[in-house]
Records
---
Amino acid sequence: MASLICIKSKSLSIVASNIFAIIASTLSLISSVFSLINQHSYTLDYLVGFPFGKLELTIDPLSAFFVFMISLLVIPVSIYSIGYLKSEYLEKNIGLLCTLYHLFILSMLFVVLSGNGFQFLIFWELMTLISFAFVIFDIKSTESKNAGFIYLLMTHIGSAFLLLSFLIFGKYTGSFSFSSFHEASNLMPVSLKTVLFLCVLFGFGTKAGIVPLHIWLPQAHPAAPSHISALMSGVMIKTGIYGILRFVFDFLSPFPSWWGVFVVFIGITTAVLGIIFASSEIDIKRILAYSSIENIGVILLSVGASMIFYSFDQTVLATIALVASLFHSLNHSLFKGLLFTCAGSIVSRTHTRNIEKLGGLIKFMPKTAFLFLIGSLAICAFPLFNGFISEWLTFQTLLTLYELKPGFIKLIAPVVASLLGFTSAICAAVFVKTFSGIFLGIPRTHQVHHVKEVSYSMNLGSGILTLLCFLIGVIPFMLFPLLKNAASFIVGLDSSSNGNLQNLLTVNSRFILLGNNNFASISPLAILIVLIAGFFFIYSFSKIYGSKLPVRKEETWSCGVTPKAEFQHTPTGFSQPLKVIFSELHTPESFYHNYIYLPIVNGLISFSHKIKPLQSGVLQIYLLYIFLALILSLAWIKL
Amino acid sequence: MNYNILKHLTLLLTHTGLLLLFAPFIHSYIKKIKAMMQGRIGPPILQGYYDLIKYFHKETVASNQTSWLFSITPFIVFSTTLAAGLLIPTFTSEEFIVSLGGIILFIYLFGLGRFFMTSSACEPGSSFCSMASSREMMFATLIEPVMLLPLFVFVCMYGTNNICETVNQLASKGVALYTPTYILSIIAIFIASLAEMCRIPFDNQETHYELTMVHEGMLLEYSGKQLGIMFFSGWLKQLIIISLIANLLFPLYTMPGFTFASLCFAVIIYLLKVLIVSTFIVFIETIVAKVRLFRVRDILMTSFIMSIIALVISVYKGKGLGV
């Protein structure tokens, strides 16, 4: 905790604390890769220094993968935050911010490493509280306060459900250790398991942001500082996915197939609605927050597909589906980290999050524009970038569901897959709107003209993420051993059928093949080569053939008047056609507030009013209550 | 040189060359036939080539608001379209580049080109361009699922994601091919393709009124060579989609052996198929009026529902709905 030591010198503390964060996460990155490759599980017990028993840290391939994901994002984000904190938060309490930053990372790591239910809850709450502190860091603004309140409220309702399910587990096993939870699954009846499943889905789903439990997400993420938003959106909400995977596959298996169908249904609803909400937003960080909701939906789609395969004993296919979901989690953390850091750069220079007030920034911040463009391409899942590979795998796993027997599953598989295509098409529309609103066209306000490019370290941080997005998109083969080990551990695929997995998911240095008789295949390197070849063919052709005059720059044609910034479409205008055609789906936030949350709150209030007469304040009545309670409990014992 | 490599190289070059050379012709052919159907004489059949030559010899003028993105967009749009062209069968359904990708890549490559085209249209700060770009994105959100679902029905039925492989399997079926599922899916693909090609009833390529332009509207600020490349990419995309439909509709061709004669024969058969489909498109364009912008959704939804029906038939065929 270097930041605590050097509170005195602010800029020194920024550099030092972030360098410590980088070193620590590099170490954890290396150790997680080793444990993923070796597929070992270790348990470390620290007897001292932790309240309520020993500190139990377990690293198995599943948690190692999430440690890998967190560390991979923390390194570039820490580099970024050196410059970001210097430019934005120098006059605020830097020491506190840096300490919280470290604690936040540490709590996320401990959440995925906990080997004990009790500890897990403590770290889970710690993670929530620290991120709450970040949300209300800008304490003067009422927006932050509201966001913080809703965040705290929603996550605590989620935690209550988690606590309930942990207590039920604890009752059946007599222990809070995850290893005993694992054995409990055989003892429990199916109905209880279903209740537990719903509790877990609700609890972790609140954190992950599934619709309609998402309402805290678009408020909390924009309120936090940008490097924290990158971590919150990139990895913190993925701890919800971790929880779902851990519980469903580790503690609650075997389970009926409708669980998987249910998760697929939630996934596609979240994905479609999340991105449709994003389409009408004009606050850059809210757009990114909504698109995180969409991506959680995409991840849940393949988790659900994997659950369906698992319940039909198709463990090999279940592994492939999980590879898709883990891969998309990793990719989402990278490109969302990239986009949030770029958004931070833009906000720190222009002091507005409203994209209607921007425009034309590509001339003033060319590097940020390029990085944001790559991030947008990756998040829209276009070929050559990492999002495409994982979304392609998701498509394939959904289509493979057609191989299963039940007609219903056969029917939903292609429909859900085409709806996934629908979400990524809207995603493209949203990011064309965002990118062109911020960077292209004529600047809409005067302050844009004085904007300068951000500092070197900020661009370096985003640049590393950009490079990772591109490299994973072109050579995804490097990551497959890690993904396969983690996924086959979760579904309990033994090494004898590993050869079978090899056959189904063939990955070599050239292409990925899926399926027995060449069901689907893709070659990212060949796509790159073909695109480069096509580009240079037409480029050289246009250089050689035809007119040799240089490009002349003239004013934009606007019916004879001087073009003004007001002539352009605003981002709101850009998404207006989308809003019209999807008006049925396009429910504003007040819908959830008015029709889902408000009835619950009103119901609770009227219920409390109804039971208020019980508390009359008359002593005799209270004595009567005690007497009645005594009689009832005696009767209970007698029975 | 190894015979196999030679063969594949010849096929690849013929395939790419055919697409590139034939794209302007199909564009002019459609224009000509349409004019004839409407009782006009129409432009010469080689007008597309004349236009391209003209554009390439003109000076390029760009808006002073534009940046590097605007000038590289034509090249990117062209290369993504050409790459998509390598994924579909034309005169032969043999694969040229082993496992480049399947249907999903095909759709997403068009998406990548569209992303750059719509972004660049917002660059000059012109109200017409950005409006067209916003409408194009609206179309895209509707077209993509509607195009994907019938293709996915084929993927599920024939167990392959590769379009060439699908066509091979269709070809091996003979007359038994024309099942209700197949016919409904083909109609659905055809409707979505009309929208993807910016044809009536979705978009009118020949309009001269900026407010009704969608695809053309995005090209308003382009000129000279850049405009030429943009037009060419659009025509190439049109030919690629027509070839896809033609090969799904008439998968009845073979290339026995690899001789010069069989190659020529296959190419002629292919051109005939493409001309038949183009004539049919002209027929549709002549008898149908362009619909209002927001009615586009209803037509595309009809197509989507048609492919859902196709899917239901294929799943529950011979089993009854009680399963």
Note: The beta strands of chain B are 61-63.
---
Amino acid sequence: MKSNWWKILGILLLLYAFLFGILTPLKPGLPSVYPINGQTGSTLTLDISGYNTHFDQTQEQRVWLKLDNQSLLASSITTTSSNQLKATFDIPAFLPSKDEVVELSLVTDNEIDGASVLPSAIFIKQTTVDSIKGQALWQNTSIENLHQKEGISFPYRNILRETIRNLYFHVSLWFAMFILLTAAVVYSIKYLNKGNINDDHRAYSLISIAVVYGLLGCATGSIWAKNTWGTWWTMDVKLNMSAIFMLIYLAYFVLRGSFQDEIKRARLTSVYNIFAFASIIPLLFVIPRLVDSLHPGNGGNPGFGGEDLDNTMRMAFYPAIIGMTLLGFWISDLRYRLALLADKLLDRD
Amino acid sequence: MQVVKETILLIKKDLLLEWRQKYAIGGILLYVVSTVFIVFISTGDIPAPVWNILFWIIILFASVNAVVKSFVQENSQRQLYYYQLAHPIAIILSKIIYNIGLLFLLTVLTYMAMTLVYESPVRRVGLFWLILFLASVGFSITFTFISAIASKADNSSTLMAILTFPIVIPILGTLMTLSANALGLIRDTAYLNDIYTLLAIDSILLGLALILFPFLWKD
């Protein structure tokens, strides 16, 4: 019991991370608005759809159209359901902008859901452009007294929506895989130094689990890509590099299978493991950063951080990584003990 | 100093062996020429991007075939004899340097054969020759080291392919970008970055090969 505390800790952390990660609701958000374009000098009625919103239970619903730092309050609002809202705007004849087509953002606020924004929600076409008249006509109502949503929730992102929870599976699987592979390299180096065959068994068990984690990471990533990018797999550098990377470790198994002699096998696979690990570092960390990529964390693309990863998400994300790693070590430990028993049986014969 | 002396001697020995068994090198060079000719017959006229891809694919396969014999050419008793005489680092270093020469010859011959049958799309010839040399260095380091591992197994040529292809992809990818630059397919002023990346990968792999080889040869 005393020596198994980390296994229990790993399971508890994973249970916590997955329950917290699945059960916590998303913040209210605005998925879409219809129509998405309008004319100056007209009355525009927008059908606004909300997600996780409570439009029908609020007392003071407010909707703005926002142009740079200026905003226009809706003249009337009717609520059709908890997720549907009709807001009417009187668009003035001129807009305070020099562009022919003006991009406006939509901001909603009520006391239950707090404030939500839909960037570039609608496009207004100006029949004649006159920014000075527009400045005079525009009745600016500053956006103030915004409400904060109460309770714990994850950020709402228009592309990600509920799939934002996949962070706890996809990313933590890759992190755990890296930790397991690093441990495997450490055991390989140890084997080459000391020549204890058990270290080789350790390295092999760790790599087996790491490859399973890698395949699961690919699968979860693929599902995520289908939802956000619209395709299972794309010609993207980080995706292709991770596929190559799986090939390298699958080749490790083939190499292992091609030797009968245990000592020879242990030595050669240890050498290959170290060589392969060093060659994937440029593969996954250097090259993807040099070229453009869809995947977060690469050329020009910010990492999955900043606005996407807030403190609430970190509360589940970091435990998920630790839990996944500990679980990996546990499974590989079982695999290792199996190898030791097999050795014992062979010795008896 | 002893290692350098041994390396030079071992390279000389390899050259001499190659000179005495001319059919080995002749076979590889013929392999390249006939591959290029098969590609030419089956494609006819091709645009520059396709030329770029075919060129590197031919070089990749020809290089694997050329290097795989590094450690199986001589029988294991003879290998043991060398290991008694020379430092392991001298052995791997001599093989790597020798293979750089061999692969450079091979890439240049592929280039010439491709130029002969197709009109050469290369715009920046100087850069292209540099790329050819860098390719020989990168391929030589990776393939020589992996062939040392693969030679210990029975089915070494299959093993050689599956072990090297994934590992060599970063090098190959960078080379293809660089060569697209030399062909004028893309206009990238930062190609020096690619060259540095390539040199960095090469030095990591070379360092590891030198450190790890002493563990490999003890048979």
Note: Chain B has a mean pLDDT of 88.
